[in-house]
Amino acid sequence: MDGLNYNNTLTSRLRVDPHTPGTPFQSPSVPTQLSHVPRQVPGAHFSYVMPTPPQSTVQLISFNHQASVSTLGIDLYPNPAVSPNQRLVDILSGASIPNGTHPWSLSYGGHQFGSWAGQLGDGRAISLGQVQHPITRAFTEIQLKGAGMTPYSRFADGYAVLRSSIREYLCAEAMHALGVPTSRSLSIVAIPSRKVTRENGDEMGAVVCRLAPSWIRFGSFELLYSRSEFDLMKELADYVIDTHCTDLNTVVQDEITVESLQTNKYIQWFKQVVKNTAEMIAHWQSVDYGPFQFMDVYDPTYVCNHSDETGRYAFCEQPRIALWNLARLASVLDPLILPPTCNDHINNSETESRAKQSVTTVLIDAVREFIPCFDTTFSLLMSRKFGLLTTANHDLDTLYQPILRLMHDSKVDYTHFFRIVSEMDLFDRTNETMDKVLDRLYNISTLSKSEWHANPTSTQSNDMSKSIVQRFNDWVQVYRTRMLCDYSSEDALFADTEQRRLRMLMANPKYTLRNHLVAKVIQEMEHDVTSDAVDRYLNVLMRPFDQGSDKEQAEFGGTVPDNMRGLKCSCSS
């Protein structure tokens, strides 16, 4: 990592915490004392912070060669057949700093369960440096998580436990392999001697090295706004636009009207944020690598965090929560667009009042674009899961919602269901063929075969007046009719049968991150940090659409045991 060319544009352009002075490309020989003291940090975007070195031997559990090459343009550990260079392990564990850079942690705020929490910041995350890919020129920040205290650690210790580190390391790569926008995982290092106290006692410590174009958050702007640090807000927005949104218009108009604001660079940037957020949520509806879960059985009301007692962040609430957060961000962007006098809140002229109203109108309109963008992306992704060639306005009501309700009522495994539908022959509608399909569905359901065939109770609504089997058979007919709409004739659909199957298999993973399987990996690693359990699961998760070997299918491809369904995680990590 010493050979990387660190450009560190963030620390070169933005304001440093005055209590942690320094330069972007040279680390101090002795850490600044206040860099590890939790405190409020006004008037700054970041603090220079040195990682806390482990006190004894560490173990490199896994190194992601693919992420290294694709994001950094070089394999930092090119020969896995031999032990890694100790210098590399030292850097990945926080024991050493790469040459030519000065690590930092970001200041930001945020809401927790709907309430403003004030300053949060990188409480245990320390960015080692920023580099550009030698070919694509894309920016990547290399960050250690769990490497010690920062000014933003609040009441915590700055460390991470092995358990949560393994979960994040694996999940980020699983999401990437599925095509979901996400951070990437470079490495995970276990620190057996670092005992980290959490709710269940002492646990083994670990450090994850993760990669992303940027770690700037909505809360980066919200915190500055809450402190009336409007100059810092503008500096941050200009940095983000110049570095990560280079294709946007750079115009800032003197006259502020609804019409002129359509080409304002800050409005264009916010519209892009809305679009990106809508597409991200539509892809999988979660990016939180704390208490997260891939659903075992489809349940729109499912809550994966046992701390979320009200269900605020339930699966079905994810789009609404994203929209809520966009509205919070929109509410603090006025200072980027309005003249400074408009932000004084006193003696505003009529012209300034009209300008403020124009900005509010345009920002609200931008937020409203979330729903149609989400719906469009969701419809497109669902059409791929069902092998359709086109999207239609009625698909949600006639095709997707009915089958999702049926999946919920039949309690089938969400992931396996789509793989079974992928293999279904739409032309062979004999009882024998459908019985084989149903037999496979019974095997991935928590309901018995008799419950699938049972008549519904009188309390069920009219649209649920049939047995699950009858509803599934009816849906298959609707699905077949909808498939025909994409083709000129039944012969054309029949000729495309194999291509449809392949399209669906490439849109519906066989392998997703399962909590009970991660728990087994964690248990194995806690017993023996030299185990290859993490790499075994990682190799499967990075090929989620492949059938996999017999051994991989046996270890990672089965349904979730009944006693392990709905395994929830806490915020403790």
Automatic annotation (TrEMBL):
Stretches with biased composition (Polar residues): 1-12, 23-35
Keyword Ubl conjugation among UniProt keywords: no
Entry keyword set: ATP-binding, Magnesium, Metal-binding, Nucleotide-binding, Nucleotidyltransferase, Transferase
One Pfam family of this chain: SelO
Cofactor: Mg(2+)
Keyword Amino-acid biosynthesis: no
InterPro entries: SelO
GO-annotated cellular components: mitochondrion
Region feature Disordered, mapped onto this chain: 1-35
Molecular function via GO: AMPylase activity; ATP binding; metal ion binding
Protein origin, superkingdom: Eukaryota
Assigned protein family: Belongs to the SELO family.
PANTHER family according to UniProt: PROTEIN ADENYLYLTRANSFERASE SELO, MITOCHONDRIAL
Protein name: Selenoprotein O
UniProt source species: Batrachochytrium dendrobatidis (strain JEL423)
Native organism taxonomy: Eukaryota, Fungi, Fungi incertae sedis, Chytridiomycota, Chytridiomycota incertae sedis
